[in-house]
Amino acid sequence: MEITDKRELILQSAARAFGTKGFHDSKVEQIAAEAGVAKGTVYLYFKDKQTLLFEVIHYFREKYMRELLAATEPHESARDKILAYTKFHIKQFPQMVRFHKLNMEQLTQMHKDREVLTRMRDEQNRNLRELAAIIQHGINRCEFRAVDPIDAALICWGAMQSSVHWAMINEIEDIDESNAERMVDLLMQGFANG
Question: Which residues form the HTH tetR-type domain (predicted)?
Fold first, then answer.
């Protein structure tokens, strides 16, 4: 248990450092000190600072998925689950923006690593499958018409990602949670008249 705890303490400390100072201004010595371990202990778990950054991102994604499932699980209707999903995603937005702005150069480099890319793809596909499961739940309950759940999940997820991307490009620091209601209503009702 102690090994897992040290690794998690390092990840949490590194997440705070990368999220507030960025990759270049975050020092392994400071990350180790905040985690309550020696600098050498960091290197027992992570071969270098770049690997530590990637593991922080993986840690964030795993945490995101756990919390996302906890946010959607209590709801019975598929629409309420999708709304909870969208609200959760939007609530994470300010933290995601800060982290990505501070670490953009390093994150771009990570996409060149085949192993990293495969792991990121697996994580994104898991997220998509969770959303597709919600849509299938809605189809099973006759809330939604019979559609391919993966196609519908791609449309929902794409809408959420696009709104976040639009806000980042336009340097908007926060997205109002009411955007989730409007987005889900638009997805559920469409915009055709009649």
Answer: 4-64
